[in-house]
Amino acid sequence: MKTNNTIFKLLAFAFIATIIFSCSKDDSISELPEIRSGFYILNEGGFNSNNASLDYYNFENASLTSSLFAQKNKRGLGDTGNDAQIYGSKMYIVVNASNTVEVINAKTALSIKQLDFKNNGKGRQPRYIVFNKNKAFVSSYDGTVAVIDTASLVIEKFITVGRNPEQMAIANNKIYVANSGGLDYPNYDKTVSVIDLNTLTEIKKIPVVINPGGVAATADGRIYVKSTGDYDKIMPSLTIIDSKTDEVKSTKEFSGSGMTIVEDKAYFLTSAGVKEYDLNTDAVTKDNFITDGTTYKIGYGLSYDKINQQLFVCDAQSYSGTGAILCFDKSGKLLYKVNTGVLPSKVIFLNK
């Protein structure tokens, strides 16, 4: 009997060990890096031309599907696609001149809901979108940031900020909103609104150089604000804000657009190439990240794939014809080029 009990215990132990080992293997599998299946391309289209479009590039067979949204939904995307982001299983596409936010299934591109951004019949002109927990936040030129519940897809409220807000960034439980005043030349705005994510209200405005448009956050909570200036006497600039104190740490003249932050580096589009900037030393490390002599005609957008460590330049080529996406590896060499619709402005990466 004792022998049988011993054998039974040994078998039970082996069985439990097998389960534990199997669970450990499953846990390790779940922690493997994400794998890309491809990427979407948001083509802004010409203003008032009603030709914004969404393309899709498939990594598996290196093929491009043009105007995928129109193919799937039997209608166009609208007028002036300004921003797009994937959050969870959905992709949100901000269509500026059509005054809509199109919510689609990220895998199939089928429309789930189209959100109307009009106030008593007047378009709010939505611009950019960011996310926090179960909320989406959309800046609009009417001086508001909309709060959208990502489950019900209902607009819950509008937060009043500055004039003609553009890009936003989140750090330390706050949203930083660049108030450009860009439609009010020469009386530009010169503030960054700070929204508290607990109360969903604007709690302060931080003065910066006039006409701020680009905002991005570092992992340690620094907020970088790119201002365009007045195109005359006030030069473009880069301002750094500490999100812990909301104090401006520094401001300096700085040219470049399409600011993209990746770990301890930032990248900017210039007419001569892609400028690389070290966030630890706050200095330009490379005037041109591109190392193989590849050039682009009109840099219109910049995206970085952290998983594959590739930089994507959106080249408008012209303001009316087709554009192109240029993909560079981490050494700055061109990997491939993809033709697009009119005014490609953003690459949105899709996981398997």
CATH fold naming: Methylamine Dehydrogenase, Chain H
Helix content: under 10%
How would you describe the shape? globular
How many distinct helices?
Answer: 2
Organism: Pedobacter psychrophilus
Protein name: Cell surface protein
InterPro entries: DUF5074 (IPR031815), Haem_d1_sf (IPR011048), Host-pathogen_enzymatic-act (IPR051200), WD40/YVTN_repeat-like_dom_sf (IPR015943)
Pfam family, one: DUF5074
What does this protein look like?
There is one protein chain. With 352 residues, the chain is mostly beta strands. The chain has a single domain (36-312), classed as Methylamine Dehydrogenase, Chain H. It is built from 2 helices and 30 strands. The strands form 8 sheets. It has a 4-stranded antiparallel beta sheet. The termini are far apart.
Strand and helix layout:
Layout (H helix, E strand, L loop, with lengths): L1 H29 L5 E8 L9 E6 L4 E3 L2 H6 L7 E7 L2 E6 L4 E6 L5 E6 L1 E2 L2 E2 L2 E7 L2 E6 L3 E6 L4 E7 L4 E7 L2 E6 L11 E6 L4 E7 L4 E6 L4 E6 L9 E6 L4 E7 L3 E6 L2 E6 L2 E6 L4 E4 L12 E7 L4 E6 L6 E7 L5 E9 L1 E8 L1
Antiparallel strand pairs: 1-2, 1-30, 2-3, 4-5, 5-6, 6-7, 8-9, 10-11, 11-12, 12-13, 14-15, 15-16, 16-17, 18-19, 19-20, 20-21, 22-23, 23-24, 24-25, 26-27, 27-28, 28-29
Protein name: Cell surface protein
Organism: Pedobacter psychrophilus
InterPro entries: DUF5074, Haem_d1_sf, Host-pathogen_enzymatic-act, WD40/YVTN_repeat-like_dom_sf
Key traits:
WD40/YVTN_repeat-like_dom_sf; Cell surface protein; disordered N terminus; 352 residues; Methylamine Dehydrogenase, Chain H; mainly beta; four-stranded antiparallel β-sheet; Host-pathogen_enzymatic-act; globular; 2 helices; 30 strands
